[in-house]
Every structure is written in structure tokens, then in C-alpha cells.
Amino acid sequence: MGVIMRTICALFLLATQSMGAPEAASRMNISENILSQKDEALPIETMFQVPTPMPTFPPSENLLRQKDEALPIDTIFHLPAPLSAFPPSGDGFATGVIDLGELQVTQISAFNKVWSTRDGGLHNKGATIFEPKNIPKGFYMLGSYSQPNNNALYGWVLVAKDVSSNTTKPTLKQPSDYTLVWNTKSLNINQEGHAYVWLPIAPNGYKAVGHVVTTTQYKPSLDKIRCVREDLTDQSEQYSLIWSNNGFFVYDVRPSNRGVETLGVRVGTFVAQTVETTTNLSLSCLKNINAQKTSSMPNLQEIDKLMKIYSPLLVLHPKEKFYPSSVNWFFSNGALLYTKGQESEPVKIEPKGTNLPQNGTNDGAYWIDLPIDGTNKGRVSYGDLNSSISYVHVKPMYGGTFTDLALWVFYPYNGPSSAKVKFIKNIKLGKIGEHVGDWEHVTLRVSNFNGELWQMYFSQHNKGTWLDASQLEYKVGNKPIVYSTLHGHASYPHVGLTLLGKKGVGIKDDAEQSNFVFNLAAYELISAEYLRYVVIEPPWLNFKRHWGPRIDYDLYKGLKNMRHILPRPLKSLIDKIIEVLPKEVLGEDGPTGPKEKSNWSGDEV
């Protein structure tokens, strides 16, 4: 109740300040006041003149100044430290070429600029369209590449080579014609020339996987691009918006079905469309039909090298009290296993979790909790940074052309949440947000063509954010920085306050610089299914139940009850707090382990 009253007092202060108070007015003789108003000169009786004539700039000069302004995309991004070659291992990782089954592909990151605009798009900086250059002999272009101008140039497209023995139906064919999707000639925008976006018309039994873009109205050569035999293609979907203007949309494209067992291969191309739709795209993606689809995945030695190069540095909040620990430390220091119906007889968990129930379903029959005695309970809840390691799960993505390294971090306890309401910067929410057993993770997405880091995923509660490698912060070499938020332990790429709400009201995710840095290079490889029996999974990984007990909070009910006795301004503010409180933090079970998350076998959400 103390927390509730402090919250209500803060809201009452906000309401009274927003309502204001009437000021005392002095009495005045009405006729005297009217007379003084008649004698007083009014501002409207003076004509305003501009002190100095405004200079004029010809439109061409304005455009010239905009064109001369450097944009982020004018710089090509390179990782901070050069990559050393991966030693020959007899496997297919980082060899430059991947065999999809009758079709070889390689990744091209060198481009010629075709067209650019400085209007629209992210941050109103426009977008640029490129086509690949320096294509190896025997390989063919599959489509163009496009990127917003607000980031350094850092992209790729696949080019392909037919290695089949089928002469009657090869894997690649020229288009039979082109259809004009759209052009920019009539647009009143700052652009370099005009763009004409062409969709290849694929022969029967083939699919187009990319566009050709020219700067004239004449159709490109049929030899410019290749379409792909349909059994080597899969369904695609639009991903992130690159650029739009007046009913025209340019989207990045990715496979619709993504995960460990899926075969769709991302081509790196974009889709241009005049209708904003997410289904029935005009372009497909590739498909890996090679029987050895994971032949380009890294082996144990290559995984270790990737971890040495890219393992992130986790920066904890300077006011953080609940640190991560190793799972074995948590078990060895008194963590207990509870059984439904036998709550009075919890069992101490063995150091490696060997006595935890294996497999099954999350049926509520078992759960994990902190030690019973107060001293150990508090001590264990604070974690042990010195014992902490990252738990690494390695899996194929995009049909085995990329490797995802998911780095999981375990916290024995998740601390309480706080909220911000308008200019009241910090409202403590009591025990809301607290729970036992907090699993957090980040994911590194590495190209299997060359071993280069392309993207990184930051998990934030029940969702997260993908960023390109060009948008990350780096501390030592190619090690990106991850900022962990106060008590909630969500992962962010940069410092700052993120509100989980709207209109200045929400739960706080607060990330700051500090000297508490956890190097995730200390790791245990817990799973890599494609290596079959090479990696032995620890027993605790197959514990399917909750890593903490069910917790119900009283603050939510208290706020709802207090709402009925408060004036209207306070009621609306309480409604705003209640609206942004996630259901999972108002009353929740401890989280499940990594293997129970949807991203274990699928893509990140």
C-alpha cells in the first residue's frame, strides 16, 4: 500500500499542477479602464516592415547544396578490424561459394550506383539503387540492391552459376521480356537522373528473384539478368521499408518461411510495387535443395573462432543490483526444484541439473525457485558476475547460407520495474516486474560465404530489434557492445531511455554506460543440432517447465481500487499507467528456458 500511496501522491501533484489556480484580480473603474484603452496606441496602428530585404537563392543553387552534402551511404562500411582467413578445414564454411543443388551462388558486396534520391525514406535522406559489379566468370546477376541513405553502404546480393547437367531445363534462363513497374520521371524530387524499375518476365517454369533498374525508358538487355528454375525458388515476403513516394513502395525481401529446417535463401534484392501488400509478391527467393544443406555451416573450431572475433561486451547499468551468473552457480548455491502437490518438500538441484525432469511439456507440474532461507535467498538473487558465461546455440538460417549464434545469459532474478508519466520521471512500481530466473539473449548473424558479421539481434522482453553491423557500437576489434537495462535486463545497441508505452507514459527501459562489463567470450556451446552428436546438451536445457514460481502483484489491483475515489485528472493518469503495464509483469510465472522459446528453431521475432 505504501508504494500505491507514493504513486498516487505523485499523480496528484501532476494533476494539481496541470489544473492551475486562478489569480486574484484588482478592482478597476470600468469607464476609466475604457478611456485608458482608447488613448493607448495599439500595435496594429504601426505597419511592420522587414528591416533588411531577404536574400533569394535560385532553385538550382539549393539543389546543388543538397547534392554536395555528404550522406552516410556515401561511405562504405567495413568492420573495425580486418578478418583473418579461416583455415582450410575441408568443410564449406567461408569458402566464398555455396552449392544450393545444381546452382552455385556467391555474395557480391561491390556495387555500381544506378540511381539515387535525397528525398523521402528514413530521416528524409532518400535511398539509392545499385547493381553488383565484379561478377565472377560464369555467374549472373539475379537482381539489383537498394538501401536507405541514412546508413553507410553495407549490403550484398547473390549472383548465381548453373552447375547442373540438365541441358533441356537449366537452372538459369534469360527473361522473355520486361514489364515496367514504375518510373520517377514525373516526380518533383531531388534525384540523380530518372529511375525505371523493370520486372523480368520469367519463362514458363522459372521465377524472377530481382529487379533491373535503368536510367532511360528503354528496356534493358535480356542478357542483363537471369530467372531461376522454379524448383530452386521459394515464397518471399516484404521486410523493411526502404523508400516510398506517392503510392510507390520499395521493400527489402526475405523468405516467408524462416527457421532451422526451412530452405528459403535470401537473395539480397528488393521488391518494387505500386500496391502496399504483404502477399503475392512479384518476386521469389531462392531455395537450397542440396541434400547436404548445412555443408557450409561452421565446425567446432570455426565456431570458436567466430566467438573470439565477435563475442559482444555486455554493459550492465551502473545501478544494477541483480547480476547474471552461471547456471551451475545458481544450482550449487541452493536453487530448489518444486513439485505440484508437494510444495512443502522442495528438492535441491544438482550442480548440472542432472535431477531435473527431462523433456515432457510445460504442464505446471514442476518449477524452480530460490533458496528458502532469507540470507541465501537474497544472496543468490543478486547473482554472481564472476561465474557468468554465455550459453551459445548455433543454428542455420536462410537455408544454410547464414549462421545464427544465439548467446543466452542467465540472471537468477529480475528486478522491479519503474514508470515515467509525462514529466514525473520515475514512479516505482513496487514488485511489478520481479521474477525468478531471467533468460536474455542476443543473436549474431554471420555470412557462411565469408564469415563476416552482417546483423545482430537485441532481445527486449517479448520482442526485439535487428540491426545491421554498420549500425552497431564496437569496443575492442569487431566485438559489438550490448547495453543491459536496469533490473529488466533487456538488450539495446545504444544508451538511452526507452519507454514501453505511448504519449510520454510507459515502463522504463533504461540503458547507461558503466564499468560493469561482462565479456560474452566466456561461453559454453550448449547446442548445434546440425553437428548431430558432436555437442552434448546439458541436462538443464531440456527442462521444459518454468525457471521461477508464479508471482501475483497487488499494485495493479490497488491502483484499480484507488481509481474510484480520485478526481477525474488522477483517474485518467492512473488509466494511462494501467494501460502500459504489460500483463506478463502484473502476474507471471518464471520464464521458460531457451529451448522453449519460439526462436530456438525459428527466426527472431
From TrEMBL:
The keyword Signal applies. Keywords: Signal. Residues 1-20 form the signal peptide. This is Vacuolar protein sorting-associated protein 62. It comes from the Eukaryota. InterPro entries: Vps62 (IPR009291). Pfam families: Vps62. It comes from Lupinus luteus (European yellow lupine).
